[in-house]
Amino acid sequence: MDRWALKQNIMTPENWYGVKFFNVFGPNEYEKGSMASVAFKSFHQITSTSELGLFKSYNPQFADGEQLRDFIYVKDVTRWMKELMDKKPESGIYNMGFGKARSWMDMAKALFASMNKPLNVKWLEMPDNIKGQYQYFTEADMTKWQKAGLSQPQWPLEKAINDYVVNYLSQQDPWL
Prior knowledge:
Elements: H1 2-7, E1 17-21, E2 23-25, H2 38-49, E3 52-55, E4 68-69, E5 71-73, H3 74-87, E6 92-96, E7 102-103, H4 104-114, E8 121-124, H5 128-131, H6 143-147, H7 157-169
Parallel strand pairs: 1-6, 2-5, 3-8
Antiparallel strand pairs: 4-7
Helix pairs in contact: 2-4, 4-7
């Protein structure tokens, strides 16, 4: 879709933006079901079992748990959406990620620490049907965002996970 949009030669009266979200997580995922973030699902798994299941790696370049994702907190994403509307940079496609890939183990350690529980990871076999298509590395190229003079992310993984766990997931009323 992004390649098609960029090829269009249509003049619009206002700026337009396509955004590519990377691994977004944060408050109010309760209705997303299977599409909820791994952070959300992992919190509930740890709460129920005191352990977290993560896929083993089948790529010799990545140790178990060292598969990398660009995790981004929804509080950065929502601030950036408003920033796009307010600052109106050049029209186009923009990535929304932290710009620095982190490992599944980094996320797991942050979750267990925020929940005041000892790290307890169980290594799972990856289903055969996804082994050949599993992505071992995702990272947003934030160069265009930065060149447009837009703000940097403010929620590194550990700070974001802690905020999410302490102020939302662990609350009696998580919709606060």
